[in-house]
Amino acid sequence: MRASDAERERIAELLREAVAEGRLDMDEFDQRLETAYKARTHGELEPLVQDLPAPGSAVAPVGSSAPAPLGGSTANWPARIGGPATSTGGFALWGGFNRKGRWTVARKFTAFAMWGGGEIDLREAHFEDREVVIRCFTIMGGIHVTAPPELNVEVRGIGIMGGFGEGSNEDGEISPDSPRVRITGFALMGGVGVDRKRTKAERRRLKEAKEAELEARRRRELEGPDDGGSGEGRKKL
Predict the structure, then answer these.
(1) Coil, strand, or helix at residue 207?
(2) CA torsion, points 72, 124, 126, 109, in degrees to nearest 10?
(3) Is residue 103 classed exposed, middle or buried when 0-12, 13-18 and 19+ CB atoms within 10 A define those classes?
(4) Which InterPro entries does the record match to this protein (predicted)?
């Protein structure tokens, strides 16, 4: 079966996600990407992703019309749901607390900060259940929650002479396999902020992947179109 331009792009997207997750190094990514754009048949495309699971699920068939799911740091959500909680709350009084890295969020997590601050980082966290509630209460203090763009987060809180809401958001589609996190509570003369962003390591890997893809495209344009090239070369004709 002949491969279409859309199928080549779908494989390229899977390769970009794989390098972002650390499954491929840059040399492997560069080689597979170059092969993907030159592939003429499904048989040439399939080996490029046979050893790479799609983020959060099995690899979609090459001929599928559905786009490849995005994942990044949120890959393999089912493996990150379940297990005993390692923390059920955080407390700060004239000081601070933080929960970040690999930790397991309790089904109900309560955070309180008074004349202090707290940091809750969910980007590498596991979750006790698929439904999680994080309750944040601040009095003349602040709590900052950081979530990956693909996590299903619902923010419901009240700010009284303060603020409770979402801040910066990086691009990303919410994964259907992710847990549902509800952030509630109130901020009195203080603030609770929720940002959606990737880790520095993941942003660096994605940047390197995009640069490698641009370099591969430039090389193809310099080499000129051939029978097995992507649609770009044919359009130039």
Answers:
(1) helix
(2) -120
(3) middle
(4) DUF1707_SHOCT-like
CA angle 58, 173, 19 (to 5 degrees): 55
Cα–Cα dist 108/97, whole Å: 17
Q: What's the pLDDT tens digit per position in 180-199?
A: 999 999 999 999 999 998 87
- Cβ-contact 209, 32 below 8 angstroms: no
CA distance 88 to 121: 14
Q: How far apart are CA 90 and CA 64, in angstroms?
A: 45
Element of type H or E holding 67: none
Which residues is 163 bridged to in the sheet?
191
| C-alpha distances out from residue 229 to 17, 42, 169, Å | 22, 14, 36
